[in-house]
């Protein structure tokens, strides 16, 4: 596909104009960041893995009726997506205490929560993506109550799907975040899952050993991030079983 005009560049992805109106090309970079981009590195092969894993999860969600922006994968690093109006919120679902929740509430990391907890953070790197309440969201017009209800319902459906899929391959879905966008079909607006779903946006722990298979490997200097992501892809059948690392584009079609 010929390179088109850049629409937006974030920490892990670049968006380009798509071939048709209402579409974009999403390019996955090898860049890794943590602590609001205070820690940065280039991890060879990371973008390839996240592109393929996000395709896998988005396709699975579509099969159970959860609408997403994903249309198709174009190559090893790019996918065609539907253009959406992103709601400026990160929707976080937590099944076990970890990260900021453990720090805020003094709950030991790994503690099972009594039920999945849904949180919202304002998408603003300069402010550190602060936690916000539903009152904040409605007061400042980021979303209406009906939108919030739909966003929570979507997030919990994603959680059910992802939790079951991970459990089947010996991985605990500790928490994850998604972004949700608005699309219009004529005059009808609906909400769909957008951005990506990958080990960049999930906490994934091996059920038996507790080994981290997500971006905490990079945050906490726990080893090779590529090896961790490759292990997730291998267990899910995204990679051939004899592949132990993926620094080069070796994913199956």
Q: How does this model look, in words?
A:
The protein is α+β, with helices and mostly antiparallel strands and 253 residues long. The chain has a domain of 120 residues: ATP-grasp fold, B domain (D-amino Acid Aminotransferase, Chain A, domain 1). It is built from 6 helices and 14 strands. The strands form 3 sheets. Strands 8, 9, 10, 11, 12, 13 and 14 form a 7-stranded antiparallel β-sheet that branches. A 5-stranded antiparallel β-sheet has the order 1-2-3-7-6. The protein has a two-stranded antiparallel sheet with strand order 4-5. A hairpin with a 4-residue loop joins strand 6 and strand 7. The longest helix has 23 residues. The two termini are 17 Å apart. The C terminus is likely disordered.
Produce a short descriptive summary:
This protein has 253 residues and is of the alpha+beta class. It has helices at 46-63, 99-105, 134-139, 145-167, 216-219, 225-235, and strands at residues 6-9, 13-17, 23-28, 31-34, 39-42, 70-73, 78-82, 85-86, 89-96, 112-122, 131-132, 171-185, 188-194, 202-206.
What percent of residues are in strands? Answer: 25-35%
CATH topology of the domain at 87-206: D-amino Acid Aminotransferase, Chain A, domain 1
Alpha-beta classification: alpha+beta
pLDDT below 50 for ≥5 consecutive residues: which ranges? Answer: 242-253
CATH-defined architecture of the domain at 87-206 = 2-Layer Sandwich
Please give the largest β-sheet.
7 strands, antiparallel
Integer-rounded radius of gyration: 18 Å
Separation of the first and last Cα atoms: 17 Å
Q: How would you name the CATH homologous superfamily of the domain at 87-206?
A: ATP-grasp fold, B domain
Residues in helix, %: 25-40%
* Average pLDDT metric: 92
Count of DSSP helices? 6
**C-alpha geometry:** globular
Number of strands: 14
Strand/helix succession: EEEEEHEEEEHEEHHEEEHH
Give the CATH level 1 class of the domain at 87-206.
Alpha Beta
